[in-house]
């Protein structure tokens, strides 16, 4: 199959054709120069590296009701927030089914990986692994040890089951505990992440010590804070729909202007469908609504490029012949392709090259 149109990847948007063999990229080049002389089926579309959901809490997928209004802390703060009371009351099998359904949906939407913050300690991680076994979406699970002060043995066990550790927030942890967790993650070569500056501004000197790999939200961070985060080379995950539900907005145009590596996430599954396409559109239009502008290119990078850098696999974010990436195709007009992706993409327009029928066709 040949896709004629555009590529948007780590090297930015450009007009191109891509020839697929199965799900592999066999050729990339200028439109009209492919080697098949019209013998292969061709379609118009935009080729992108597979998107990653940069921040999600799959564990709370079991609840799908409208959340009560009120302060966010009352809803999601461990251990007695509405969310945690609800998690305790749900059975393991109900949670497992809900997680599996959310992951299946991400798979249908073309998501290749999701970075999950898993609460509930070792048991929570085991449940997540059981629920997502065999899924085509890779789950990057950041677990959370439960004992405080932390027990090194528990941290070790959590790290064995996980891809790293994701804390609720720096404010809720002592410096000693964060330092021990940060060191353990580094030693295990796994990710260390936490939420920060979500409801109130926190001091970057605190949440950057020890240096995490990933900070989530930073809605209340100032320009100076973001500059400090950028200098530290820390990636920031933003979740515009989840923030909006509680009257907040990530500072996307500032993140872009300052050059903070940014990834896009859908946050709590209990609040929103884990759809990166809905997140992209909302991220873009909510900024325009607020009288600001974040570029579509920046947002597409946040969904399809920057997360692969965070995961240490930058080649996944490049559409090139014989590369490791397994790109997806979105059947949209290739003009101004990044804007098409943020403004018009839905799961219905996705073509997976491997499952597309071969042979000549009108496309
Ligand atoms: Zn979160």
What are the key terms here?
363 residues, Urease, subunit C, domain 1, TIM Barrel, 2 domains, nine-stranded parallel β-sheet, six-stranded mixed β-sheet, 14 helices, disordered C terminus, binds zinc ion
Question: In summary, what is this structure?
Answer:
The protein folds into two domains: 2-49 and 318-355, Urease, subunit C, domain 1; 52-314, Alpha-Beta Barrel (TIM Barrel), CATH 3.20.20.
Summarize the structure in words.
- The protein has 363 residues and is α/β, with parallel strands linked by helices.
- It has two domains: 2-49 and 318-355, Roll (Urease, subunit C, domain 1), CATH 2.30.40.10; 52-314, Metal-dependent hydrolases (TIM Barrel), CATH 3.20.20.140.
- Helices cover 35% and strands 21% of the residues.
- The protein contains 14 helices and 15 strands.
- Strands 12-11-10-9-8-7-6-5-13 form a nine-stranded parallel sheet. A six-stranded mixed sheet has the order 3-2-1-4-14-15.
- It binds zinc ion (ZN).
- Residues 55, 57, 117, 195, 216, 267 line the site of zinc ion.
